[in-house]
């Protein structure tokens, strides 16, 4: 277990500019997705500030740990992380799924959380790719 913590701590020790880039990108991404989910009446956070806890305090560290892994590994590990997050969000009722939303209609209500986890697991490889591109542009200036 000590080796795992050493690995994690080493991966999250990054340039402060990279960390700020992750936080800004993920915060804006989270606000946008929460807004979109509410507008489309799919799902939303119960409180707006959950964007901070989920996207910055949960997803940014996981993204940093997964950074540098192949796409499929980032997605697979991200699926575990998002499965736990989706399950706990709906179980604790800190996330709200609109009744009879478009995903319920398309996939069935019993598959809603699974569908959300499968979709949001893409955040880790796509987020790492996008933040990497933005960071490289900012650092080169």
UniProtKB/TrEMBL annotation:
Span-the-membrane segments of this chain are 18-36, 48-66, 75-92, 112-131
* Protein name (record): Uncharacterized protein
Q: Which UniProt keywords apply?
A: Membrane, Transmembrane, Transmembrane helix
Q: What taxonomic ancestry is recorded?
A: Bacteria, Pseudomonadati, Bacteroidota, Flavobacteriia, Flavobacteriales
């Amino acid at each position: 277990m000590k080796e795992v913590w050493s690995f994690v701590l080493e991966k999250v020790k990054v340039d402060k500019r990279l960390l700020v880039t992750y936080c800004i990108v993920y915060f804006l991404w989270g606000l946008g997705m929460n807004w979109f989910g509410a507008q489309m009446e799919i799902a939303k956070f119960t409180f707006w500030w959950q964007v901070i806890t989920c996207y910055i305090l949960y997803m940014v560290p996981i993204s940093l740990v997964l950074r540098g892994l192949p796409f499929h590994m980032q997605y697979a590990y991200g699926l575990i992380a998002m499965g736990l997050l989706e399950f706990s969000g709906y179980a604790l009722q800190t996330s709200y799924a609109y009744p009879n939303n478009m995903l319920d209609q398309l996939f069935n209500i019993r598959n809603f959380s699974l569908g959300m986890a499968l979709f949001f697991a893409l955040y880790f490889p796509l987020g790492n790719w996008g933040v990497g591109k933005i960071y490289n542009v900012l650092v080169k200036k």
